[in-house]
């Protein structure tokens, strides 16, 4: 297919991620129009063939599909609010990080203005964009997604989760939660080992290997969470609650702050107090729901 036959796309927001998105559309042969509050950030893309719009309204009017990637929800409302009328009959794909509530709010707003809305969550960093390992989660209008799936495929692997526009944000934030949990644990581990001057680079291969082994238990834990049945397979919650205290005591003794690891202690002890000491650790998930 030649460049002329590819769907024209507009990208609004040219931060680190927006520039990567626009670059991937250009690489895919899509006529690409860009707009950014700070106009100078469009220069390198213009040199690669992008059309620079003078205003956000002009950018939206240039393509049937507008992809927005701004800092946050407030920036999205600030930029798109004044151009709502220009979106009529077009598709808006919002890849800005946000909450499920914000995504649903955006979808309602877009519908009021006659636009199709798809929300998205990018599970990748900018250098990954344009490669299959860049997973981009979408939810919202299934017809709009189907119409533009091929175009969105230029960014990475496009996965549509369902018609509820809030789903992509929910999955995105849940995956980020797993990621930050891992980073938090890793940073605490490094603070502990560094307290004895053990080089991080020497210790880290053990962390990678240990986390890899522990990750194999996640699917079984997921089955337990779904069934509500949490049989322990050799490492029950009560035993872990007792051992965990040593992690806190050692941290204090080694001069390491316990802020990152204290909440898990509290949760483990709540589990024991609720009579779940003989269960698997997966039982803790239900204790996290404040409004089950
Ligand atoms: N970069 C990453 O690794 C992650 C990967 C996963 C997805 N996130 C989310 O993507 C959104 C954009 O992230 P970003 O990395 O492009 O962020 P910045 O480089 O900081 O660029 C921010 C852009 O937003 C524009 N902007 C901010 N406030 C306003 C406003 N009030 N009005 C208009 N535009 C605004 C900013 O414009 P400028 O400062 O250049 O004028 C940038 O274009 C984000 O949701 C991540 O969570 C990225």
Structure explained in plain terms:
The protein folds into two domains: 3-170, NAD(P)-binding Rossmann-like Domain (Rossmann fold, 3-Layer(aba) Sandwich); 217-288, N-(1-d-carboxylethyl)-l-norvaline Dehydrogenase, domain 2 (Orthogonal Bundle), CATH 1.10.1040.10. It contains twelve helices and eight strands. The protein has helices at residues 16-27, 43-47, 56-61, 73-80, 100-112, 142-152, 167-194, 200-215, 218-227, 237-253, 262-273, 284-288, and strands at 9-12, 32-35, 51-52, 65-68, 91-94, 116-123, 135-140, 157-160. The protein has an eight-stranded mixed sheet, sandwiched between helices. The longest helix is centred in the middle third of the chain and has 28 residues, at 167-194. The radius of gyration is 23 Å and the shape is elongated. The structure holds ligand FVH. Ligand FVH is lined by residues 13-18, 36-38, 41, 69-72, 75, 78-79, 96-97, 122, 125-126. The site of ligand FVH has 22 residues, from helix 1 and helix 4. One of its GO terms (biological process) is transcription elongation-coupled chromatin remodeling. Belongs to the HIBADH-related family. Keywords: Oxidoreductase. It comes from Planomonospora sphaerica.
Give the number of DSSP strands: 8
What's the architecture of the largest domain in CATH terms? 3-Layer(aba) Sandwich
| Share of β-strand residues | 5-15%
Alpha carbon gyration radius: 23 Å
H and E string: EHEHEHEHEHEEHEHHHHHH
CATH H-level homologous superfamily name of the largest domain: NAD(P)-binding Rossmann-like Domain
Give the strand order, joined by hyphens, for the main sheet. Answer: 3-2-1-4-5-6-7-8
In total, the number of domains comes to 2
Structural class: alpha/beta
Individual helix count: 12
Distance between the termini: 51 Å
What is the 3D form? Answer: elongated
What name is given to the CATH topology of the largest domain? Rossmann fold
Largest sheet: 8 strands, mixed
Give every kind of bound small molecule, once each: ligand FVH
Helix content: 40-55%
Q: What is the CATH top level name of the largest domain?
A: Alpha Beta
Mean pLDDT: 96
């Amino acid at each position: 297919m030649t460049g002329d036959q590819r769907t024209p796309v507009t990208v609004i927001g040219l931060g680190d991620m927006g520039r990567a998105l626009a670059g991937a559309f250009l690489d895919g042969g899509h006529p690409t129009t860009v707009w950014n509050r700070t106009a100078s950030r469009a220069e390198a893309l213009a040199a690669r063939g992008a059309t620079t719009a003078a205003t956000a309204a002009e950018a939206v009017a240039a393509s049937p599909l507008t992809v927005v990637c701004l800092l946050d929800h407030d920036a999205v409302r600030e930029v798109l609010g004044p151009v709502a009328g220009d979106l009529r009959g077009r598709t808006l794909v919002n890849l800005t990080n946000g909450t499920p509530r914000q995504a649903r709010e955006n979808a309602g707003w877009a519908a009021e203005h006659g636009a199709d809305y798809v929300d998205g969550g990018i599970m990748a960093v900018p250098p990954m964009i344009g490669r299959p390992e860049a997973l981009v989660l979408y939810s919202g209008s299934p017809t709009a997604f189907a119409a533009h799936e091929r175009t969105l495929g230029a960014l990475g692997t496009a996965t549509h989760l369902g018609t509820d526009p809030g789903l992509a944000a929910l999955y995105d934030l849940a995956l980020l939660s797993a990621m930050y949990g891992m980073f938090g644990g890793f940073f605490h581990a490094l603070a502990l080992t560094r307290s004895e001057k053990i080089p991080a680079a020497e210790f880290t291969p053990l962390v990678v290997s240990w986390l890899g082994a522990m990750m194999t238990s996640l699917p079984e834990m997921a089955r337990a969470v779904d069934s509500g049945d949490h049989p322990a397979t050799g490492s029950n919650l009560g035993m872990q609650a007792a051992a965990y205290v040593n992690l806190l005591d050692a941290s204090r003794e080694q001069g390491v702050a316990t802020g990152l690891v204290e909440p898990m202690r509290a949760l483990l002890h709540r589990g024991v107090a609720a009579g779940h000491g003989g269960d698997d650790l997966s039982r803790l998930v239900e204790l996290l729901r404040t409004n089950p």
